[in-house]
Amino acid sequence: MREPVIEAIDVVRRYGRGAAEVQALRGVNLKIRAGELTLLMGPSGSGKTTLLSILGCMLSPSSGTVRLRGETTTNASQSELARLRRQHVGFIFQSYHLFPTLSALDNVRLALDVRGQTGQAAVTRALDVLAAVGLAHKKDAFPHEMSGGEQQRVAIARAIAGTPSIILADEPTGALDTENGYAVMKVLARIARDPGHGVLVVTHDPRVRSFANRILYIEDGRIVGEERGTGLAAAE
Amino acid sequence: MSLIFRLASRNLFQDRLRFIATIIGIVFSIVLVSVQLGLFLGFQKMVTTMIDHTPADLWVVSRGTKCFEDPSLLDKHDQAKALSVPGVSEVVPLIIGFSEWSVPHDGTTPVFVVGTTPKGLQPWHVVQGSFSAVSDPHGVAIDRSYFGRLGVSALGDTTTIRNHTVAVKAITQGIRSFTTTPYVFAPLDSAQTYIGTAHNEISYLLVHLAHGADAAQVRNALLHKLDKVEVLTPLEFRDRSRSFWLFGTGAGFALFGGALLGAIVGTVIIAQTLYSSTKDHLTEFATLRAIGSSSLYIHKVIITQALLSAVIGFGAAAVIDFIVVWLTFSSALPIVMTPVLTLGLFVLTVVMCVVSAVSAIVQVTRIDPARVFKS
After folding, report:
1. pLDDT tens across B189-205, in order?
2. Assigned domain for A106 exists
3. Is A192 within the bounds of a domain?
4. Reported ipTM
5. CB proximity B62 to A under 8 Å
6. Is the pTM of this model over 0.80?
7. Does some domain include residue A19?
8. What is the H or E stretch that residue B302 is in?
9. SS3 of A125, please?
10. C-alpha distances out from residue B33 to B256, B272, B324, Å
11. How far is B364 from chain A (nearest CA, A)?
12. Residues of A in contact with B10 (CB under 8 A)
């Protein structure tokens, strides 16, 4: 079995203090492996986004450990967390969060630029990943000139451009119709087959279950179930 | 083009109204600062214009003299004493003082009389007549810009100064006084009459050194020989005059105060617009943080925005400045713009803009990258 790219061990996250304290995560244990598309499903308020923030090195756990490619995030400084994100994590957001003033190509290049990859090599890499999501012909288009599905695919290209260890997607189909949602999930499933990446998709969209290799269920801040998916839709 | 530059410029130009407001703020601020400092330089130049045009190696002045316009007087006998000092080749007397010029059919107006000899302070930029004509005891030289004020309009016009008839024998162009009181050049003896001083009283002695003489030694000898005087080099007299008019009167502080106010107002305006621009792009900056950009990368974006504002704002301000300089060129107090001042203003603009970026940087530094999940 492959080594996990990311591992959460007894992760607890609390917000507030005293009577106002809320425990968003109550001892989460999970492993995400490369070459797999894992779904994290659960109702609103179950702790999905908090877990995603912790796995993505945006938040530190109140207790417990997160290991990313063997590096622990415990007690890491903000700049250290930024380095870990830069080196290992690619994000995809429900609202895409593309830069409206930059073309598709420049939006992808930005992920390389922050990693210190510039010049023609970065342009070539950005074009390659745009081609990988089927948008090479849209390289000069600005976000407002693209459909929601196309914008989300540009966001996917941005996420994979820096060859991260793990891609974390927050409701990537949440703002898309069935057809575009399907297209986006197909791209993600294809990326997940690459043994260099693991993909974790947070969703409550039941339509995407068929793309998953594994499904984790979270409720009240705990992983309450796990099942193997077929990943069949991805293979179509 | 660097991606940082592209992102910064597009952030800046995206909201055109705010961008124009930023540029107006910078232009207003820089024009205000440059006018104040340009006035300072112009004033600095104007207060020493007489000293600058006076041929002298050393000035003998009454002790405690604060500036060229000081009314203190010397004994004319000091001229002979000074001439007897080894190393002195010539000593030329100079008298200055206020008097009353009769404006034909319109009362009187104050004038500043400069009484000179052919080897002393000569009127420069003579455009009509000649200075030799001023050796005519009734002849005077005046500047063309004061024709209206003095009620004369041409060479040969006559009037009176303190009831003594004078005739305009030379006309200059550009000899203007920062006090707005017109200068009137006249022969020494006549000037003493117009000013109302005795013929044994003079304002200054202009000392010319013999070839090879040591100025310091001559100065000491003059101080030893003459009572109640100071001996100054032209540079020292210039500095003393400037210091008096600029700082003794508070005029310099007022000009610097205005410049400082302009810089503060500009900084606040730019800071406000950069802050609001950054606030509008917070989600984008949070996205940058989420995708792993270092704080330095984000700071570079914001500072590039600030520097772009600085360059564009300064360019527009420089055009206005040069128009202002051109418009005031022949006024009583021209605004002076030098290459050093221009460079200094550019540096000031850049510093203002970078300092202004601090509030935006602090704001971005506090962004929670996890906000990208919430919006």
Report:
1. 999 999 999 889 999 99
2. yes
3. yes
4. 0.87
5. no
6. no
7. no
8. helix B295-327
9. helix
10. 8, 19, 13
11. 13
12. 101-102
